[in-house]
Amino acid sequence: MSLLLRRPPGREAYPGDVFYLHSRLLERAAKSSSQLGEGSMTALPIVETQSGDVSAYIPTNVISITDGQIFLSADLFNAGIRPAINVGISVSRVGSAAQIKAMKQVAGKLKLELAQFSELEAFAQFASDLDKATQNQLARGQRLRKLLKQSQSAPLTVEEQIITIYTGTNGYLDSLEIGQVRKFLVELRAYLKMNKPQFQEIINWNSS
């Protein structure tokens, strides 16, 4: 690329001013407003990695500028997991600061269990004899992964998300077959709305 542009090559043969070009593009996302604390900056850059290599020059360059990233994995997509978000690599610098108290508690446990499940799943491919605890952890991870699948045009309130995640991370889905998980959760949310509508107020009150 540098040769075509007749510029001195930098890292991975890209021009040396690529970081400046990226930051200049980001500046175009700024909106100044003296009434709103001098404005804000909102941008959603999309980068295609080569063979899933997030450590290449362009991905790391963009990651260093932005406040976090969502990493979509082709392997997860091909396995039928959609949205195919790799929770191990995806990160937000805002993090739990944008979450209510109840969501912080359940989401932290969910992320830890999913990360452990991913490691065990890779290990289990090469292991022939797994102990009972490992089998149980793999089984729960599969149900948590199923729990996160969401139908198109079927949004959930924050309170419904909290109830759903809490149900999975506290073992209430462990006795169900994987194919029954989504049906159970749909019926659980419908039951709470019909018979315990105050659950949303309780969650919000405990989060204040």
UniProtKB/TrEMBL annotation:
Spans through the membrane: none
Domain ATPase F1/V1/A1 complex alpha/beta subunit nucleotide-binding: 1-92
GO cellular component terms attached to this protein's record: mitochondrial inner membrane; proton-transporting ATP synthase complex
InterPro entries recorded: ATP_synth_asu_C, ATP_synth_asu_C_sf, ATP_synth_F1_asu, ATPase_a/bsu_AS, ATPase_F1/V1/A1_a/bsu_nucl-bd, P-loop_NTPase
UniProt key word ATP-binding: yes
Domain of life per record: Eukaryota
Gene Ontology molecular-function annotations: ADP binding; ATP binding; proton-transporting ATP synthase activity, rotational mechanism
Keyword Transmembrane helix listed: no
CDD domains, alphabetized: ATP-synt_F1_alpha_C (cd18113)
UniProt entry keywords in alphabetical sequence: ATP synthesis, ATP-binding, CF(1), Hydrogen ion transport, Ion transport, Membrane, Mitochondrion, Mitochondrion inner membrane, Nucleotide-binding, Transport
Predominant location category: mitochondrion
Domain named ATP synthase alpha subunit C-terminal: residues: 99-204
Subcellular location: Mitochondrion inner membrane
SUPFAM superfamilies linked: C-terminal domain of alpha and beta subunits of F1 ATP synthase, P-loop containing nucleoside triphosphate hydrolases
Homology family: Belongs to the ATPase alpha/beta chains family.
Task of the protein: Mitochondrial membrane ATP synthase (F(1)F(0) ATP synthase or Complex V) produces ATP from ADP in the presence of a proton gradient across the membrane which is generated by electron transport complexes of the respiratory chain. F-type ATPases consist of two structural domains, F(1) - containing the extramembraneous catalytic core, and F(0) - containing the membrane proton channel, linked together by a central stalk and a peripheral stalk. During catalysis, ATP synthesis in the catalytic domain of F(1) is coupled via a rotary mechanism of the central stalk subunits to proton translocation.
Subunit structure: F-type ATPases have 2 components, CF(1) - the catalytic core - and CF(0) - the membrane proton channel. CF(1) has five subunits: alpha(3), beta(3), gamma(1), delta(1), epsilon(1). CF(0) has three main subunits: a, b and c.
Protein name as annotated: ATP synthase subunit alpha, mitochondrial
Species of provenance: Arachis hypogaea (Peanut)
